[in-house]
Sequence to fold (214 residues):
Amino acid sequence: MKAPFITFEGGEGSGKSTQISLLCEYLKGKGVDVVVTKEPGGTQIGVELRRLLVQGSIDKMDANAEALLFFADRRIHMTQLVWPALENGQWVVSDRFADSTTAYQYYAYNKRLSKEDIDMLYQFAVGNFKPDLTIILDIDPKVGLARSFKKAEGMKTKETRNENRVLEFHQNLRQGYLEIAKNEPNRCVVLNADQTVVALHQEILAVIKERFGI
Ligand SMILES: Nc1ncnc2c1ncn2[C@@H]1O[C@H](COP(=O)(O)OP(=O)(O)OP(=O)(O)O)[C@@H](O)[C@H]1O
Ligand SMILES: [Mg+2]
Fold:
């Protein structure tokens, strides 16, 4: 079997990072060589781009500029990390990928970027390559944001640029993810993220077993 590229998507505080770390522990226990990464920021240059994207005021740049930075990060991520790892037979699990661009820049930003523009940028940066599986963690943004703010308080993080957007933005984001899943039902699986960490982990394992037999 070709090593799979699995992406996790969902709004702030939906539990992506928590579930990815549990999944990877499980996979490693099964002897799978797995690389865990994230967007933005999976590479050295990506770390610098991430700082520009997730810190500071909401309107410090327009949607086009933001999209270009995200795709620059994505291109570097693919060429320096994801593709080499897959070539090497390693599984790659990414905390966010291109669906985040569509969900945020198209749906949540109220279509300030067109689908055609996003597709064009995707082609330029990634070509015809797609994730083998995308797990979308679906949650009421009120619940997700409450988790995120609690976490940010504890960590004194400056990465709150997204959390500070109005609730409507996050509701549109959630609907956007559901639309994406509806358009690509083979690639995307939507799971209810408003359940305990352990219960959600079990659901994720069931999907992994069904898709990859592990
Ligand atoms: N199922 C759950 N029930 C309750 N709390 C949870 C659950 N999953 C995660 N959390 C907690 O919610 C917070 C956000 O979780 P996590 O960081 O995994 O979300 P995320 O989707 O990665 O968020 P972000 O988009 O901000 O990176 C953390 O403090 C985590 O411990
Ligand atoms: Mg996270």
In short: The pocket of adenosine-5'-triphosphate (ligand 1) is lined by residues 10, 12-18, 147-148, 151, 196-197, 200 (CB under 6 Å).
